[in-house]
Amino acid sequence: MNGSSAAHHHRRLQLPYLSVILAVAVLVATVNGGEFTDSSAIISRFQQYLRINTAHPEPNYYKAADFIVSVANSLSLESQILEFVKGKPLVLLKWPGRDSSLPSILLNSHTDVVPAEHEKWAHAPFDAHLDTSSGHIYARGSQDMKCVGLQYLEAIRKLQNSGFRPLRTVYLSFVPDEEIGGFDGAKKFADSEVFKKMNVGVVLDEGLASPTENYRLFYAERCPWWLVIKATGAPGHGAKLYDNTAMENLLKSIESVRRFRAAQFDLVKAGLKAEGEVISVNMVFLKAGTPSPSGFVMNLQPSEAQAGFDIRVPPTMDAVSLERRIAEEWAPASRNMTFELGQFKHKVSVFDKFGKPILTSADSSNPWWALLEEAIRNANGKLGKPEIFPASTDARYFRELGLPAIGFSPMSNTPILLHDHNEFLNKDEYLKGIDIYESIIKGYASYVEHLKDEASRDEL
Ligand SMILES: *[C@@H]1O[C@H](CO)[C@@H](O)[C@H](O)[C@H]1NC(C)=O
Ligand SMILES: [Zn+2]
Description:
The chain is an alpha/beta fold. The protein folds into 3 domains: 35 residues, no CATH class; 261 residues, Aminopeptidase; 124 residues, Alpha-Beta Plaits (2-Layer Sandwich). The strands form 7 sheets. It has a 6-stranded mixed beta sheet. Strands 10, 12, 16, 17 and 18 form a 5-stranded antiparallel beta sheet that branches. Strand 1 and strand 2 form a beta hairpin. The longest helix has 24 residues. It is elongated and about 85 Å long. It starts with a helix and ends with a helix. The structure holds 2-acetamido-2-deoxy-beta-D-glucopyranose (NAG) and zinc ion. One of its GO terms (molecular function) is metal ion binding.
């Protein structure tokens, strides 16, 4: 809504009155339609958010929270700051729906970013420099994921200006600590009483940039299993050939892991599977040898050797057979191999709390999926095929509760630069993403379930 139509109705009033009305009209237009919604104001708000240094290990969370709350106030959203852990504020915003009994929509984003090696950037990572010739905005967090957090809010501004009122309540959460595991952020939030009361029906969270024109949607993510195996064997002279040394025992495991890794990677190289659809295994450390002042003792075969692996398991995979493979081939007791630190140093279950694979249905059986695809297409967005996120995001904490959670960051024709030097997002891509969210939020917040069962019962 803006003031120009109001001025028309008063055309017959005398000039002094008219100018007062016009002045009011201009003021209303400036607040509702003008200054806040022209694209330079939108971009400058994005830059403001990007300039707040929320990089680990000392993220300025309070400054980010103040900024989010100030934007929320300009939209008259209800806001509260939750501090599950002191010093780690989580901003929760609410746009109340007309029917508070319906499950709500949660739009999640994290406020923290990974550190940047300043000297390796062409533009300082917290300057949010806008390159006027390319339109690229350079900043840590421009892709991961301050863009998304603010796009949600800009989309709400547009919907409000168009007069839209949500049927379902829309919540926005701005969470800390995603980049360090989310334990003090999204996890505590998902497990909280506050969250339970929100009656969330669907969650949107982050995805990845797409170098093609197709946006990417993520319905699951691979679960990290961090495995440390240890081999033991009789020590001996470095010149002696004998069986069952610790090194030999470990090397057999490493060979077995290597064969498995190559077979998985071949599927990706051949284009038969996407990165998120295979099990990745990467050796991340090797620890063995007998230290000496100048390095290692060279004529002694050690009695112990260890190796660590980062394994990522898609929830669509048979986790039981992988565990069997680990126990029988990678760390068999028969070869004097043991697991360090229990079986795994860290292991995320491939099942949710109901024992179902931890994934969101990516087909028409899930109305939220269908609605999302439709909303994106309605806003002229193109889509690739549903994907499994190769690494971890906060979405898993919501999926663990059995909730549908979809990973999406509207960035097409954009190189994947999260956690990289010179991370950027083009301003037009950012603006387009706002239109996409406008369509999604409108679709989600208006969604009325067709009560198929009741309807068919009535017919009978
Ligand atoms: C395992 O350790 C035992 C006891 O040290 C040894 O007798 C046996 O040969 C070892 N087996 C292998 C396969 O290393
Ligand atoms: Zn992220």
